[in-house]
Amino acid sequence: MSEVDVTDLATRLHGAVDDHPVDVPNLLAPARSRRRRRRVLGGTAAVAVVVAGALVASQLLGTAPHTALVAATPSPTLSASTVPSAATLSNEAIAARCAPQMAKYNALPQLPGIPRQPGRTNTWHVAHQAHPYRVGDIVAMVPDSMDYTAYCRIPAAGQESVNVSFADLEAASLTTVDRVAMCGESMSILDRPTPTTASADFPGPDLRDATIVAAASAGNTMALLLSQGATTYSCILYPQPWLAGGVVMYPMDGTRALRVGFSGFATDAAEKSVVPMGTYYFSAGRLPADARTIEITISKKVVATVTANADGWWVAAFMVAGRNAFAEPSTYAVKDAAGTVLKTADFGS
Amino acid sequence: MDADAEFEQYVADSFARLCRTAFLLCGDWQRAEDAAQETLLKMHRSWGRIVRHEGLDAYARQTLVRTLIDEWRRPWRRREHVADALPEASLHPVDATTQIDDRAQLVRAVARLAPRQRACVVLRFYLDTSVADTAAALGCSEGNVKRLTSDGLAALRVVLDTTEGSLT
Fold first, then answer.
1. Are B12 and B81 in the same domain?
2. Residue B118 is part of a domain; what is its CATH number?
3. What ipTM was reported for this prediction?
């Protein structure tokens, strides 16, 4: 692109948005309120209690790569990480035991905010100080910059040097109980503590007693729907150390709707060692009672069919291999149990 | 001027610019306003330190971009919308029968870029940010910024050439 083009681009970018009216909000009051609220949360965060008993849908979690779907009928099991006799570890003990495992993250060149000078390493902090952890649990760790999430499987004393690879932390390598627990290790940069805070106190529910409602996988990613109490959570487990990686978890409102939209990622060559190249799509929701399946079509080809469970919940994860498919025509059709089409539309409509 | 007064003044001076930058990054005015507000609220938490050590505009750029990158990484961005549209969902090919003005076409073309390419193009050419400052905002090397920018411009040219014949 020539200099003339670039100059023109700058002009056109300004022309595209600069005359859009923007009302300036009063942010001082909410800013003060948020500061007060964070103090309150910090003061009560240490009282959380772990309850054992995640439910399993393991037969449904081995979904073949590049496909969607799952509606699960869970059966119960206990988490090995919540055996009553196991002692809860302090955050300091966890950080110390996990330090050797964090070395593999320190070496990654793509992580923002991580010092890369020779000989320097990060100090890693337990991200959810309020979550009780025991030996064998997977715990989210954040560096001083709190810009990236890493994971550690807490070793027993004397076992700190045992290698835990990135592959060991992928969904396919985890037990169902660990997958559920890992969803509770999610966090958002939007909740990032102030950089001056010495350690991390990201908010987020401990989901170790949640039930898997549905699950789906695409490549080495996995999407789950979890139920805990009255709340259903969507969760995606990404392979490590994908830049987009870690865990993304959200509570859902349970509204039944025919509308279907997807979010996702188009990978590029730089990521091919971590994930198969392609466009990854994820979504979840709850269909009306009369609706049963969602057929997804990209570039006139059906790429996935998702079936809702008896309560209407559905989750989808699929991958279109080899290219950025976001710009291609993408539609869905919602059908009832008899195959009658209830709605067809473009994604998000 | 005390810190709160400084904050209010900065909000008044910068909100529109942050909001418009965010729109170019995400293509949605509501999300853009959310991101601009979130950026400024985060800044309030550490106002004194930012003023003393980091510089307001640099911190705002970094926080805005990282806030939106975090959003892009969220498969379900808003809890109240079970299945929101893709960040790139507005990228459907231009319908030749639909009249689309130049501005919408440019915004759509920018939206088709990969997120970090998009961030580089917007920071470099809308905010006129230096390579070094763009690298700081994205948390990557200057070399990466140059590559992402070059790739983004090339991709942008392809998209605009396809839809209008040429960028200029």
1. yes
2. 1.10.10.10
3. 0.80
Would an 8 Å CB–CB cutoff place A117 in contact with chain B?
no
List the domain range (segments joined by +) for residue B98: 90-168
The residue ranking higher by pLDDT, B67 or A229, is A229
Do B142 and B155 lie in one domain? The reply is yes
Ramachandran category for residue A256: left, alpha or beta (phi over 0 → left; psi -120 to 50 → alpha): beta
In this structure, the answer to whether residues B77 and B51 fall within a common structural domain is yes
B137, B58: one domain: no
According to DSSP, the residues that pair with A216 across neighbouring strands are A223
Give how far A90 is from chain B: nearest CA, Å: 28
Q: Name the residue with higher pLDDT: A16 or B123.
A: B123
Q: Is B60 on the interface with A (CB under 8 A)?
A: no
B77, B110: one domain: no
Instruction: Report the distance separating Cα A136 and Cα A147, nearest Å.
Output: 25
Chain A residues near residue B89 by CB distance under 8 angstroms: 261-262, 326, 330, 347-348
| pLDDT one-digit tens code per residue, B95-115 | 322 324 567 778 888 887 888
Count how many domains chain A has: 1
pLDDT of residue A247: 76
Interatomic CA distance for residues A21 and B72, integer angstroms: 25
List chain A residues with pLDDT less than 50: 3-4, 35-85, 112-118, 196, 198, 244
User: Residue A105, class by beta-carbon neighbours within 10 Å (0-12 exposed, 13-18 middle, 19+ buried)?
Assistant: buried
Q: Does A256 reach chain B within 8 Å, measured CB to CB? A: no
Return the pLDDT at A234.
87
